[in-house]
Amino acid sequence: MDDDGVTCADALDAPADSCDLVDEAAGPRSFELGASFTLGSFLKDRARVLAIAAVTMLCCAAMLGALGVNAWGCFAFELVLAAALGAALFLQYRQRRIFYQELSDTFAGLENPSFLPEMVEEPRFLEGQLAHEALRRAISLADREAAVYRDDLENHRQFVELWIHEVKTPLAAARLTASKVHGAESDMLRRELERIESAVERSLYYARATSPTIDYELKEVSLASLAKTAVRKNANLLMECGVAPTVDIDPAVMVVADASWLTFILGQLISNSAKYGATTLAFTCQELDANTPRGRTLLIMDDNGRGIPAKDMPRVFERAFVGENGRSQSAATGMGLYFVALLAHKLGVTVDLFSTEGQGTRATLTFPHDRRIYLRKLQLTESCERQRLAGEGQPTTCG
């Protein structure tokens, strides 16, 4: 298999991740204050004021000379004026520097910029007060618009889920009717019904994945069990396409994920393998860097299909990208791997794809172990809380 691959982070605005839901690769969100507000830039901004002050001082010196003041007196007077002007400018610069530095540091450390006006003290100089008020109003307006958008998105998600719930009834009735029909036409009818149900399921997961309220349950699940479930759900497609799947995973291998979401992700990958010429599909797993902060479990899917052209690899996770292989399939939508990347991103799972045209494709799902540790601590905390609520004075296993 080719060593060159692509990760879903290359296609989503994925914060780095691999698809790990963090912005580590992008670095902290900030702007360079030192480059934009220095003493030099401050004085340059007041170049006209300084020029007028210089002309005024020269005029004062000329007037003092005309009035008979000696050179030392003129020099002392000019020195006092220059010192006063310098002190005033320094105090102005210091006030603004403190405000803009606080603004920059606070912005860099905030996950939600909406709290910025409350976190930054209102400055004492007029321009800063005006900027602070403008920032507060702009963020307030943006928050209101975001709230409207979230409400619209949630209403759309609820509509899609309601539609899916309603369409399942006639689909079940059609499947029951198809079961009473025999022959080649019956098999074709059942296959088309499965495709409709698959499309409906994709719509449901897409609606949930794009919702502001994430609808999933993370828990430890058996990787082998999920792989076998995904294979069973796609058994008819695999048999129709002549694909022989094998699952060589220890049943004791556990990962932290949502079982239904992960089964759907595997189903999309299985469907791609079947549709693009694979005759074998092998599931294996590998554990790397165990008992370290970088510990992770890899689920590996290898097929011997037609592979993906190298020029298409960087874009395979993009929405609606069908590529050279997809264009040979009239029903291709380019949404399968996009859904995989989107849902994996939500689950904090890294998806990588490696492929050599004419030889096959390898897909890997990476599950970090640190989430497993966090989940076990959370489960222990919840267990202790239940024991505490069960009755005071009762012996517990909690420390």
CATH architecture of the largest domain: 2-Layer Sandwich
Number of strands: 8
Portion in beta strands: 5-15%
CATH structural class of the largest domain? Alpha Beta
What is the end-to-end distance? 50 Å
Cα-atom Rg, whole angstroms?
33 Å
* Percent of residues in helices: 55-70%
**In terms of structural class, how would the helical and strand content be classed?**
alpha+beta
Q: In sequence order, what are the helices and strands, one letter per element?
A: EHHHHHHHEHHEEHEEHHEEH
CATH topology of the largest domain: Heat Shock Protein 90
Name of the CATH superfamily of the largest domain:
Histidine kinase-like ATPase, C-terminal domain
Calculate the mean pLDDT score and round it: 80
Counted up, domains total 3
Shape category: elongated
The biggest sheet, with number of strands, parallel, antiparallel or mixed sense and barrel status, is:
6 strands, mixed
What is the number of helical segments per DSSP (H or I, 4+ residues)? Answer: 13
**Uncertain regions: pLDDT < 50 for 5+ in a row?**
13-30
Strand order of the largest sheet: 1-7-8-6-5-3
